Amino acid sequence: MTETNQTSSPSTASALQGDHPGFEQARQAAAALAQATGVDRHRIAVVLGSGWGGAAELIGETTATVPTAELPGFAAPSVPGHNPTVRSVRLKDGSQALVFGSRTHFYEHRDAQAVAHTVRTAAAAGAEIVVLTNGCGGLNPDWAPGTPVLVADHINLTGATPLSGATFVDLTDLYSPRIRQIAREVDPELPEGVYVQFSGPQYETPAEVNYARTIGGDLVGMSTALDAIAARHAGLEVFGISLVTNAAAGISGDPLSHEEVVEAGQAAGPRISALLAGIIEKL
């Protein structure tokens, strides 16, 4: 039977109630993680996107590392610059966090269920909060490469959803105002904006970027929105933060490349990693 209850707000109760497609496989992956890490419950989950990999070292003490591809439902990432592991990390308050060194992108499989598997596994592992990070193109010329930006909302232009059937989920305040305020306490200068997810893997055309700006977008990329929808459905409190790795197509006139994204992430890595660790310490 398809789960049909409307979800209006995140819940700290055990998520993944019911038999929505993908939930059983997420429970299997969470059970495998518990066995491999020796940790029954992880309070926070962190998904590291392009440029954010160094944060894993600063969040806390890594107590176990599991290759992602060894877990049910996961495959090794196909994107250069992503770490194919999941870490169990002990935070300063003694609780544990799951740190995913990579995510599944929609363009890898054209399958929103595969994208959702990471956050659903986190929920099945006991997480209450998920931190979604990404590298993206910036539409604001004042945001130079290396600028971190809080995600206040998103626009999903993939034409897909991780939800199945009459599963009605309220996405009001999807990106936690509470955690965004905590982030501003760590860095009062943090800007925020609306993230627009395209399906990829091609970069957006200047016309598409102009369209995204016209409909209210500030950031463009190929991840995060589908993850966030699945996370809210699974009962998680969602925090999103982007790293502007390049000006979006047509903003600067320069051609786009994945190498540019990786280089910008490496240059900003120490600063944004410390920022993310400072935010997580307060959660």
TrEMBL record:
One Pfam family of this chain: PNP_UDP_1
Any one GO CC term of the record: cytoplasm
Gene3D superfamilies found in the cross-reference section: Nucleoside phosphorylase domain
Domain of life assignment: Bacteria
Function (record text): The purine nucleoside phosphorylases catalyze the phosphorolytic breakdown of the N-glycosidic bond in the beta-(deoxy)ribonucleoside molecules, with the formation of the corresponding free purine bases and pentose-1-phosphate. Cleaves guanosine, inosine, 2'-deoxyguanosine and 2'-deoxyinosine.
Reactions it catalyzes: a purine 2'-deoxy-D-ribonucleoside + phosphate = a purine nucleobase + 2-deoxy-alpha-D-ribose 1-phosphate
Subunit comment: Homotrimer.
NCBIfam families: PNPH-PUNA-XAPA, PRK08202.1, PUNP
Residue ranges occupied by any Nucleoside phosphorylase domain in the UniProt entry: 43-281
Biological or metabolic pathway of the protein: Purine metabolism; purine nucleoside salvage
PANTHER family cross-referenced by the UniProt entry: METHYLTHIOADENOSINE/PURINE NUCLEOSIDE PHOSPHORYLASE, PURINE NUCLEOSIDE PHOSPHORYLASE-RELATED
Origin species: Micrococcus terreus
Keywords: Glycosyltransferase, Transferase
The name this protein goes by in its record: Purine nucleoside phosphorylase
Residues reported to bind phosphate: S50, H82, R103, T104, H105, G135, S223
Classification of source organism: Bacteria, Bacillati, Actinomycetota, Actinomycetes, Micrococcales
